[in-house]
Amino acid sequence: MSEQAKATGEFRRASPWPVFIALGFALAELGIFVGYFAVAVGGLLLLGGSVAGILVESGYAKRLWRPLAGLGVAFGLFGVGMVASQVDPATLDVLGVVTDPNGIVGRGLAVVGSGAILVAIGIAGSLAE
């Protein structure tokens, strides 16, 4: 009889975060690869917030703000790398590249923008708490 499960009335809860991670990843991918700036930033914000949320829920982080800022730094560095790979270091016409970005630079700027927003939210949240 010890092999039967005991009915205590306690049920395991399902986490909502995997759905939001998948949606954020899909929106970010769509926005980055197709070139929709707002969709890319929104998808990356949803992805970063969902990853930070699942880290807090699973117990890997105590507060939401530090993982948000860390993911923002990672996104920002990746975006800067994308932009730097397309800018000619000899001319260094950054203002011209930013005002009239080509495909990869525009996508990199979307990643940098979402990273900056995540860092700002992480810092503001930790200061407000």
Provide key terms for this protein:
mainly alpha, 129 residues, single chain
Characterization of the model:
71% of the residues lie in helices and 0% in strands. The chain is built from 5 helices and no strands. The longest helix has 26 residues. The protein is elongated, with a radius of gyration of 19 Å. The model has no long low-confidence stretch (mean pLDDT 84).
Number of helices: 5
Unreliable residue runs: none
Helix content: over 70%
Helix/strand-derived category reads mainly alpha
| Beta fraction | under 5%
Radius of gyration, taken over Cα atoms and rounded to an integer in Å: 19 Å
Please trace the helix and strand order, writing H or E for each element.
HHHHH
Distance between the termini: 50 Å
Mean pLDDT: 84
Shape: elongated
User: What kind of oligomer do you see?
Assistant: single chain
Q: Main beta sheet: strand number and arrangement?
A: none
**Based on DSSP secondary structure assignment, what is the total number of beta strands?**
0
